[in-house]
Amino acid sequence: MPRPTSTPMPTAKERYDNxxxxxxxxxxxxxVGSFSxxxxxxxxxxxxxxxxxxxxxxxxxxxILALTALRLxxxxxxxxxxxxxGPHWQQLAAKATHQAMYLLCLAIPLVGWAYSSAAGFxxxxxxxxxxxxxxxxxxxxxxxxxxxxxxxxxALGALVVMHVAASLKHHFVDHDGLLxxxxxxxx
Length: 187
Known about the structure:
Blueprint: H1 18-42, H2 48-77, H3 88-119, E1 124-125, E2 129-130, H4 139-174
Antiparallel strand pairs: 1-2
């Protein structure tokens, strides 16, 4: 079967709307940034820089939590475009991956928030908005929660890599225009 010479551009009905696209790319940047800072800061010795990075990481987590909730609310009222072309197993894998990423984008900040609360470190978003503690201070509980935050973050990282790889496969191998559905700009 001959491959197309150019990637078809999706119509407006085949694309996500601009709000969904903005949520997608903003969350993608925030997740990659927060994950990277989390990896970097975890091995730093105690310092002012480490405290600043931990605070930024917590603010990013709360922002990711809020944006994910808003994105899901938006999605309830705005249907996505039709499913991507491809075999049924790929469509099922894509749907499962997306659902798992949504779940992790909610769970990771909540587990981090629970850890901070149990460790006795209240989250104050941007230094002005104190978040209520989810748990009473309990250092032993905090230490049991801490690895879950990291494991869930690694799971999200693996799903993001799979998501990006699948998108690139659709674009460069299948030439089906799938990547353009989430491209900023007009159809």
